[in-house]
Amino acid sequence: MRPNEDEFASATESEELKAAIREGIAAEGRIPFRQFMAVALYHPQHGYYSSPRQRMGRHGDYLTSPEVHPIFGSLMAKQLCHMWQAMGEPQPFTVVEMGAGSGLLARDILGWAGRRAPEFFQALEYRLIEVNDWLVDGQRRLLRQVDASLAKVSWLPSLESIAAESVSGCFLSNELIDSFPVHRVVVRDGRLHELYVEWQEERFVESLGPPSTPLLEDYFHRLGLLPGEGCSAEVNLEALVWMKTVAGALRRGFVLTFDYGYPAAELYAPWRKDGTLLCFYRHNPSPDPYARLGRQDMTSHVDFTSLVQAGREHGLEPLGLTSQGRFLTALGIAAGLERQADSGLSLEEYYARRRAVTELIDPAGLGRIKVLVQAKGVGQPKLWGLEGSES
Questions:
Q1: What angle do CA 306, 307, 311 make, to 5 degrees?
Q2: Which domains does the chain have, with CATH numbers?
Q3: CA separation for the pair 357, 70 (Å, rounded)
Q4: pTM metric for this prediction
């Protein structure tokens, strides 16, 4: 049964969620911002990602690439097929999509493979990891469009449920890591401080204190840098744990990661005074994480230097880091603009593709998303999407 989204739209925040966070603060005096963000986004009943409401798409809070046009998923399928070929066409080739959201990316990958690469489709096994049961129901309905029996598709309860070194294929994520809860830190007098959340005078307030874990100082020690004096920044320790888990589950193949972010030197540059934490409600950005609790998304940009370091520590070698705009261009997205007499495209579909191509590669929008490709046990294949990559 589809929930009444008007109920969620009419409420500016979840009072139950606010009460849950206040209870945590009351028990501890104050909590690290990371704990506040984790409850706000992932509380099992009232968190933003647990609620049964539309978050993605033009009528949600934010737009991801699969919602723009099926051409994005088709190009991902093309790259996955090339990976399969580079691995010697293993049977099966398993794709694990983490944080599958609406299911559109899976639908478009499977649809392209079924139409354009039947041998690849025959080898393909598609696994989805999604924490929201309401989204899983929607994914099942959607994927029956391309696999009526769902013989090619299955759902996993968590990344941790995958046995060590059991996957030959590709771990795929699109705008997943930027939604992990982050610690927020500030540099004062050359020293690292952490931001905490308190409840005072009927509102959430921030205070500074010593780092809640030595892992924060270790993080910057590995990078050989600190944010600039007086700068605030985010530290995504969960991304390192996630990278270790993915690398451990992969026996042979690739990790393909799409997300907003920068190399560490740019992410923690001294001119970046306020970090990158940003909230979204109905496509409107806000810097205030304490507004609209349970109704707005929170994200922060990914440190790709640390992702590469963590991957290497656990057996993943980077093949390249590029922008989504370059990646899709190398995969031939411009072909979506070609309207030949025998193409079979209607005028309406042609203009829809042209708008989609522009949106997906726009360097000021979705095109600036970074694409990191890592590999294990496959050598250094020259993948199509990385032609002309930054590194």
A1: 115
A2: 1-15+183-235+262-299 (no CATH), 54-181+237-260+301-386 (3.40.50.12710)
A3: 11
A4: 0.94
